[in-house]
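Thread: quick sanity check before group meeting

JM: Hey all, I'm pulling together slides for Thursday and realized we never actually wrote out the predicted structure for the chain we discussed last week. Dropping the sequence here so it's in one place. If anyone has concerns about the input, flag it before I start.
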Amino acid sequence: MSESTDLAAALPTDTGTFSAGSMLPVGKLDTHHLLLLADDVTADEVEALALSQDIQAGWVGVSSLQLFPGAYLQGPWDVDAQMRSLLGAPEWTSQLMVLDCPRVRAGALPPALAGKDPLADAFPLAQPTGAELVALTRMRAIARRLAGALRLIPGAPDGADPVLIEPSPEVSASLTVYGPVWIGPEDLAALLGQRAPGMRPALHAVEPPKAIGLDAVDPDKLERLVETIGAEVFEKAWHASKEVRSRTEWEEARAAASGGVIEDELDGYAVIAPVDGEREGWGSIEVQVGATDGLPLAVRGESWARGAVLSYDLRWKPLDQADAYEEVVSRSRRRERQTARDLIEELATILVGAVTGVAVDDDGFLVSLDPGQ
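JM (edit): ok, ran it. Output follows.
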């Protein structure tokens, strides 16, 4: 459908008028971006996802869902067969929401980035930026989760027809599990290795130095250091280093006397396993573990989220990293990605039960996993 088509004129006269919260605002459909949804999606589901994206999201009026201050989804409105045809929408489209947000555009899409992201490709001459880009990114996440679509209006200077995007839920094979329980490298490898044979810590053993502080510095480098910073500054540094050395020796002696050992503090690590042990070219699954204070909104309501929280980030690592988030990949790569997705979901399910936590996807939405299965 050409952008010059006047949807209001193409419909019966009485359909071109509406009252907020009831009739479809036909006059906006050729000038505003749309979120297209199937009939099994409820407004409450859209609201729940918006609330997972922004603390200021929520209904602010009749048929007006705030994504963030300045950006609103109006609706939803029912879509009949005639309107669906005029919009060029998928057959499953039964309702839509209209994005009310300022249009903020930057420069053209660089040729090197063309074909990488359908959202960017929809605006070849003037890329959305600022509030419009944030709104479109969040709309796409909602559409991906709800198996919906976006109808985008490129507008000037593109002068192009509306663009339809159906975000694929298969693009990301990643999940992150958050929880209050720390599991060490060997234990995690053993736990997940039940389902992912070959799981092992991705750590590089480092032989501890025999000397510490300035004692560990090469004598020739020490001389050059004295020449650079001066003898007086070097002497102060030497005394500080001596204090560190004495404190370390005291701690080691105390641990030896009590029968204990000195352990390096580990605040992050990774474990890794092949996607399929019989297919070397299928890449690997990596679980990155560490403390975090940047919790998604969907996780902050958990009772344990007020204390120390650990994140277990499960990622698919294809041989070509560019394939990890490509919308369009080859048939063989799709098989690899789907296998990785299935494996990651199983590993995340095990982790959710082990750390009494929750799992979220790359868009920050909670993912329902049943550790009992």
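AS: nice. The chain has three domains: 7-165, 175-204+267-367, 217-257. The radius of gyration is 28 Å.
JM: adding both to the slides.
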